[in-house]
């Protein structure tokens, strides 16, 4: 399953990496890719959407579906 979430506040490649690492830490995530220009992250796997949003929020970015 693929989920796309909106991530606000990413301004550089390091930001993308931080978001990707946070998403990879969520149980059920098999792959995660962040795109600062699109303000989105695409996540593959069967992770709970609430857990994905919380992981991004915990890194200091704003996330929503």
Automatic annotation (TrEMBL):
PROSITE patterns: HMA_2. Residues 1-64 form the HMA domain. It comes from the Archaea. GO terms for molecular function: metal ion binding. Coiled coil: none annotated. This is Copper exporting ATPase. It comes from Halalkalicoccus paucihalophilus.
């Amino acid at each position: 399953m693929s989920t796309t979430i909106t991530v606000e506040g990413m301004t550089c490649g390091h930001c993308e990496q931080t978001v990707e690492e946070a998403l990879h830490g969520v149980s059920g995530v098999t792959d995660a890719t962040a795109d600062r220009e699109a303000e989105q992250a695409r996540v593959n796997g069967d992770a709970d959407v609430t857990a994905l949003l919380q992981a991004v929020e915990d890194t200091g970015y704003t996330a929503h579906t």
